[in-house]
Every structure is written in structure tokens, then in C-alpha cells.
Design a protein that fits this description.
It is a single chain. Helices cover 39% and strands 16% of the residues. The chain has helices spanning 31-43, 57-67, 87-101, 119-131, 145-152, 173-182, 200-209, 213-224, 235-242, 251-258; strands at 8-10, 16-18, 21-23, 47-49, 75-80, 106-111, 135-141, 161-165, 185-189, 227-228. The relative contact order is 0.14. The strands form two sheets. An eight-stranded parallel sheet has the order 3-4-5-6-7-8-9-10. The protein has a two-stranded antiparallel ribbon with strand order 1-2. It has ten helices and ten strands. It has a single domain, classed as NADP-dependent oxidoreductase domain (TIM Barrel, Alpha-Beta Barrel). The protein is α/β, with parallel strands linked by helices. GO terms for molecular function: oxidoreductase activity, acting on the CH-OH group of donors, NAD or NADP as acceptor. It comes from Cohnella lupini.
């Protein structure tokens, strides 16, 4: 699979989404986030993933404007948080996100978690924003198969993206297969397992390919067709995480990494959220 840092994947509506993006979860608003996003854009990233809950949308927008890169070449994602859900609340939350970002539109807007009794109405608000041209694509985050089936039973626009925790210890194969069948692009948060990379197989493959363990794991995501958004505020790691396009994992090595699965989450279970 010949990929480059400019590689994109086509969403259900034809929008092009970068295969690699920068995540800014827990990055401090202000200088830390501005510097991280600026470094990523300079390194060639064209996707940035934030959320209202991250409290750093303002800094993301500042870095984007300062980059000198035309807005249409970038892909900015944000999300509606749990206490902002419901139809009217979500519309109001989006206005707040757009104002903080200082943008005229968002490329991708997601329902952050499947809050029981609210996510359908929240998603209706996203459909309205899409119809108004304020978002280029809409989707969900942390939805399991039954959440997607429930939502698709009533929505007018199928979710284009499902952003979930996915990594070698939690490969989400059933969800991956379901999303692929439905044409929903799977996107991985926490792809590097919060730095838990010292697995014997990953170390072995890093040596084999002359790359770092992080690069091996991120390349595994890309070769599976999963969009990935490694989070970092370390400028060296941001560059390192983008250096994925001068090697390719052999198919048997992709399968070997798949076999590491333990169904192990480091984040919350979408079926048991209380926040």
C-alpha cells in the first residue's frame, strides 16, 4: 500500500479525510497546543482533532490561522461533549466551538460519547448542521455496533466516521468489520496505548524495519485502513509519528500484530459511561 503524509480516505459523502492527524487531548490551551499544532502542520500533517471538552479549540484555531496553509487544505475535527447533548444544546455547543476555533465551518463534527437517551437527538442536530453546510462531514465517537445500529435505524444521514479506542491490544475486529461493511470510516484514538509500546513483538518489528515501536504501531493502523490521530505535544515525537511512509509492514507482520489483541481498553467502555 503506497501511502504518503498527504494520503486521504474518501468518506461516504465524497469528502477526503487525512489518514494521519494530530490529536490534542489534554494539551493545554494556549502555547502548548499552538506549538504542537504548528509543529504538526509544519511536518506535513493536514488533520487536527480537538473537542469542546479538551478546552483547547481556541489554540487550535490560532495555530491553523498562523500556519499560512489555506483552510481548504486542512481537516479540522471537533466534538460535542456529553453535557452538551440533545438537539438544541448541540446546536448551541457547535456555535461555541465554531466561535472558539474562529472558523466558518468544521470539517468533521462528532457525537463524543453515546449518552443514553440523548445521542439520537444530538445526531439530528449534526444532520441539520451538515444540511446547512456548516460541517463537511458528521459522525460519532465511541459507538459500539449496537449504538450504530440503533442510530442508523432513525437517522437520515449515515455516520461517516466512528472514532474509537483501537490499538494492538484492543483491535475491535467485529466493530471494524461492521464499519467497513457499512462504509463508515473507523478512526483510532489512543493508537499508541498511552506509551505501552515495550511489547516483545513490537520491539522485534521495530528492529526488523529500523523504525521506532511507535512508528511500527502507527503504520499497522494505516495499512489496515484505519485513520489515526496520535496525540503528542513533544515536537520531536510529532515529527517521528509522521515518519511512516518510507517503509511497509509485510502482511504476516500485520497479522502478527493483530494477534496481540487482549480486548484491553485504557479508556472508558462506551456501554458504561457516567460522565
Amino acid at each position: 500500500m503506497k501511502l504518503s503524509i498527504d494520503s486521504t480516505t474518501e468518506l461516504l459523502n465524497g469528502a477526503e479525510m487525512p489518514r494521519l492527524g494530530l490529536g490534542v487531548w489534554r494539551a493545554q490551551d494556549g502555547e502548548e497546543t499552538v506549538n504542537a499544532v504548528s509543529a504538526a502542520l509544519k511536518a506535513g500533517y493536514r488533520g487536527v482533532d480537538t473537542a469542546s471538552m479538551y478546552k483547547n479549540e481556541k489554540a487550535v484555531g490560532q495555530a491553523v490561522r498562523a500556519s499560512g496553509i489555506s483552510r481548504e487544505r486542512l481537516f479540522v475535527t471537533t466534538k460535542v461533549w456529553n453535557n452538551e447533548q440533545g438537539y438544541d444544546n448541540a446546536l448551541k455547543a457547535f456555535d461555541g466551538s465554531l466561535e472558539r476555533l474562529g472558523m466558518e465551518y468544521v470539517d468533521l463534527y462528532l457525537v463524543h460519547w453515546p449518552v443514553v437517551g440523548q445521542y439520537k437527538e444530538t445526531y439530528k442536530a449534526l444532520e441539520k448542521l451538515y444540511d446547512q453546510g456548516l460541517v463537511r462531514a458528521i459522525g460519532v465517537s465511541n459507538f459500539n455496533i449496537h449504538h450504530l445500529e440503533d442510530l442508523m435505524g432513525s437517522c437520515n444521514i449515515k455516520p461517516m466516521v466512528n472514532q474509537v479506542e483501537l490499538h494492538p491490544l484492543h483491535t475491535q475486529k467485529k466493530l471494524f468489520a461492521f464499519c467497513r461493511k457499512e462504509g463508515i470510516q473507523l478512526q483510532s484514538w489512543r493508537p499508541l496505548m498511552q506509551g505501552r509500546l515495550e511489547l516483545p513483538l513490537i520491539t522485534e518489528l521495530a528492529s526488523k524495519y529500523g523504525k521506532t515501536p511507535a512508528q511500527v504501531v502507527l503504520r499497522w493502523h494505516l495499512q489496515l485502513g484505519i485513520v489515526t490521530i496520535p496525540k503528542s505535544v513533544n515536537l520531536g515525537r510529532i515529527q517521528e509519528n509522521a515518519d511512516l511512509f518510507d517503509f511497509e509492514l509485510e502482511p504476516e507482520d500485520v497479522n502478527r500484530i493483530d494477534s496481540l489483541n487482549q480486548n484491553r481498553r485504557f479508556g472508558a467502555d462506551p456501554d458504561h459511561i457516567d460522565f
